[in-house]
Structure formats: structure tokens, C-alpha cells
Amino acid sequence: MQNFPLMINGEPVETPQHSEVINPATGLPFASCSQADVHVAQQAIGAAAQAFDSWSKLSHSQRQEYCHQIGAVIEANMPELMQLICQETGKPMGGLNGVGAGMEVGGSAFWAHFTADLELPVEVLQDDDSGRVELHRKPLGVVASITPWNWPLLIATWHVIPALLAGNTVVIKPSPYTPITTLRMVELANSVLPPGVLNAITGDGEVGNLLTSHPQIAKVIFTGSTPTGRKIMASASASLKRLTLELGGNDAGIVLPGTNLDSALPAIFGCCFHNNGQTCAALKRLYVHRSQYQAACDGMAAKARTIKVGNGLEEGTELGPVQNAAQLAIVESLVAAAKEEGGKVLCGGERLPGDGYFYAPTVVAGLSNGSRLVDEEPFGPVLPIVAYDSLEEVIELANDNDAGLGGSVWADDLDDAHALAGKLACGTVWINDHGAVQPNMPFGGVKQSGLGVEFGLEGLKEMTSCQSICIKP
Ligand code: NAD
Prior knowledge:
The protein is 38% helix and 23% strand. The chain is α/β, with parallel strands linked by helices. Helix 1 packs across helix 7 (205-213), helix 3 (78-89) crosses helix 4 and helix 3 (78-89) packs antiparallel against helix 6. The chain binds nicotinamide-adenine-dinucleotide. Residues 146-150, 173-176, 204-205, 208-209, 212, 223-225, 228, 231-232, 246-249, 280, 377, 379, 405, 445, 450 line the site of nicotinamide-adenine-dinucleotide. The site of nicotinamide-adenine-dinucleotide (NAD) has 30 residues, from helix 7 and helix 8. Residues 17-469 form the Aldehyde dehydrogenase domain. InterPro entries: Ald_DH/histidinol_DH, Ald_DH_C, Ald_DH_CS_CYS, Ald_DH_CS_GLU, Ald_DH_N, Aldehyde_DH_dom, LUC3-like.
């Protein structure tokens, strides 16, 4: 079984302890990675701290060139990275609506190139007889990046490229469920970067906690669950680290009365079930006006029954397995609770045969807010559909959640949808779409879905601190 080393100071690092990485389509290990402990993590932080001085002194255009080169090595190694993603996450190479390993690798390269072109020039805030005020953006130092298992390469790219571009150096720690693609990407990136600029280690809470409390870490960018986000905030508070937290979502989608379901439902289906629902900003609760409720439930269930679930390496697979056994257990417990709470499982509602963590795409009707499946993020292939009677009621239902990542309004009349959009308490609202992110659009949650934003100039700013220079004439 191939072992993937850590990457510290430009060198692959083997450690005595290896962790096996499971392919969720088979339930069996397919590779292993070297295991970091806190001692090894210290070495990675030290390497990044040492590299900071020369990296931060490069010109912006030199760092842009390096970031483009990272995009280029991702592109050049697309087949290998796709295969690794497919094996460690279970997601198909192609996938439902083209959302799969190919999109993840292609999207990472695209994102790297787009972000590499961004710049935060010095702003002149005032220049008159009373003086000149300039706003400069400075790098922060060593950034710790901590990532989840659902989009391992894409989220790593989202963290690493803006951090490096702004002049920081990085230590990245991927999820123990999906470390391989990140280790390989960092190895590839190190073929073009100076040593120590980008380091990768592995581990879980203990190593993560070292990163979030270490005095030499200036900033933590974290994508993952809300409970872990709370721990990170507490741990980072002692040294007042800068934080970007992209946390859990429980996004509502609202179908306005009279919407043409023939066109809306297939699109909504993709927004709920792509990547098996394991996307932070997937549509996770669907609200449909009572006049169209039955038709929407029937349509979504009919579509769910046609979906090809299987090993992501097989041609034509639309959805792979749930990524890990613990997540599968959460999905099963939420569906069991839904049944107890009077929900009607219209399709799916059970594991599929085989050794992998396969679960049938599931649609549940008859629930409302207050039931666990509606209130909690399932992060799996399960969608509750809830009936509503008035627009006032549905806004209240949609906003009645601690999460506030995204939301959507589906309607034939765009003005009607737009009028409702601003009433949703979330970071992004899509109209006739849900979950589509792009590198020029700030993305982040409100309420307990996070702190700060990623992407575009706003995201890049979060990798810097402001320095105002005031000149008296
Ligand atoms: P998780 O919180 O369990 O783990 C995420 C990462 O945190 C892993 O690398 C893990 O090893 C690390 N970690 C665990 N304990 C830690 C600690 N004490 N200190 C520091 N690091 C620690 O999340 P997950 O199960 O991997 O991911 C699923 C969750 O991520 C879902 O809730 C999903 O909504 C969320 N997510 C959010 C976004 C977003 O942009 N808002 C994107 C993707 C996923």
C-alpha cells in the first residue's frame, strides 16, 4: 500500500507511524499517510516561520507567478488527483450534474489562477493640504489551514492560494479521513515553491489544537463543523489569532407559489443531492407552498429513484457512498428520528447492500421545523420537504435556525424572488440556483455558520492586516 509522506520545509517527511485511509466505496484501506504528532507539527510551524521573511519580501507579481505555477501543476496532474479524490472521498469521477472529482480538480486549478490575478494595491484615503493617508495591506505571518473531508482539494486551494499570495506562509492540516489529495497537492506545489512556504502535516484534534494555539501561528483559516469551529475559536483566543471560520450550514430553499416545477425540480434536485448532500452550502431543507406540495414531493422522490449510486470509479455513477461510517451513522439516526416524528419516507431511507457506506437518496415529507431532520444538518443524501401556507410563515421557518450559510428562492418571476431574497438571514442567497460559488464572490456564513469570508478581494483582505500611514505635510 502506498504511503504518502508529510511535506515540511520542501522535503517529504516519513514518520514511524502510518494511518490507513479508507476508500468509502469498499470500506477498505487503499493508501496510508505518515502520521504527524505535536513534535512534527512544531517542525512544520518552525519551517513556515523561517520561510516567512523571504517570502513576504517577494514582490506581489513574483508571488502571483508562484500561485499560477501551483494552478499549473494541479492541472498537469489532473488524472492522478482525480483518482485519489475518488478513492478517498468516494465521489464519482463525473457525478450528478458533473459534480465530482473532475470538477474538484479542474475547479481547484481555475480557482488558483483566478485568485493569483488578484491584487490589493496601496489605497490613498486622503491626499490634500492637511496630509496624506495611505492604507497598506501587510501579510500576517504563518497561516494554519485546517480542512474537512468533503472537498479536500478545492478547500485546500481556497485556503492556500490567497494566504500565499498575500505574503503569508502556510501549514495545512487536512481531515484524517481525506489526507492523501492534500499531501500530494502540497508535494506538487513544493516542486515550484521555495522550501518552507507551504507545509503539510496530518492528525486530528491534538495536532489541530497545537496549530490553533501556537504562538507562531498568526491566523487560522478553518472549514469544518460548527462544534469544531467553537473549539478553535476558544483555543485561538489566548493569542488573539485572526480567524476565518467556514462552518456548517442548514440551507433552506423556498419554492414560491406557482413556480413551474417541471423546470425547477430537476435543478433543485441537483442542488440538494450533488456530492451526496455533503456540501456546506447544499440545499438541505426545501419549503414548498401547500398548493404544490404533493407534486413537489412526488417529483423529487421520482427523480431520486432514478439515481445511479455506486463506486465513483465506475462509468455512469451519479452518487458515491457517504464519505465515512460516522457520517453514515448520523444520516441513519436523523432518518430514524424523522420516522418517529411522523415523517413519511417517500424513497430511500436505508443503506444499500455492499461493504461501502452506500445510502439510498432519500426524500422525507410531512415534517416541519422542530423535527431533528429539519433542524439539524444531515450532511448526507437526505432531503426533508416542508409545506408552508404564506410568505411571512416561510421566511420565519427558513430563518428559524442557528445556521446562516446560504439560502435560495425558486420562482418564475425574478422580481418576486428578489423581493424575498434579502429577508433571508444567511451569507449568500441564490435565485433559481443554490450553492454555486465563484472566485470573485465573497462567501461566508452569518450566525453560527462562521466568521469572515473567503474568495475575491474580500477573502484576500482576510489574509492581511491593515497598516495606515499618515503623512503630515
Ligand atoms: P470537522 O469539524 O469534524 O473536522 C474538520 C477539521 O477539523 C479536520 O481536519 C479535523 O481533523 C479538524 N479538527 C478536529 N478537531 C479539532 C480541534 N480541536 N482543533 C483543530 N482542528 C480540529 O468537520 P468535517 O466532518 O470534516 O466536515 C463536515 C462539516 O464541515 C460540515 O458541518 C460542513 O457543513 C462543514 N463545511 C463547511 C463549509 C463552509 O464553507 N462553510 C465547507 C465544507 C464543509
